[in-house]
Amino acid sequence: MSDGALRRLLALHDAAEGDAVLRETPRRRITRVAWPGGDVVAKEYRPTSLGQRLGGALLGPRAGRADRGARRLAAAGFLAPEPLGWLAVGRRSVAFARFVPGPTLQEALAVVDRARARALAVEAVTLAARLHQAGFAVRDFKPPNLVVTARGLVLVDLDDVGRRRAGGWGRQAWRNNLVSLDAYGQAPPRPLGVTPRLEALRAYAGLRGLEPAWLLREVLPRSRAKRRG
Q: Which tens digit of pLDDT belongs to each residue from 46-62?
């Protein structure tokens, strides 16, 4: 998308109010704005500390990283929001991507029947397994950041998507993705229950060639601690 079009989107984002503002915090503003060809989600990142500004200087603005994350996933054959580009304006940066319609996985798990919930839990760990097998590490892989569509689950929070080695931070991130999925699966108002959670983790173990007992020992205690924390 041209720089001029991105700046028009930025103006719409800055002017958005009411229901068009999906999230507003000191660090982030997310809006949904109308645009030819389909609505656009604008994600604005505002570094509020010296550490965040240093991180941006070392790794690049977060909006640019989100845009690259979407392009990397799409290039590898994964579903991702269509990236339209990003801008850096002063200390803030804003990424633009096509809106992905559909409920989040968290919303869907609260209303679907038990059979569908179990299928969605397996679909989520299957996506995680595919991402991890391809070497992707996603820092915030959790049900509120996954959208349920007819084509499959779409990850929409792409601030920290990268490719990592199997060891070190990459392996820890992969485990943490499963911890988040399991912990959120137990969230009210419709906790998944023990059997679907175990089925999902065993499905992941089978897809990755891991020993299920080892994986359960790695994930379940951390999931329990995350729910309590």
A: 987 756 666 655 668 99
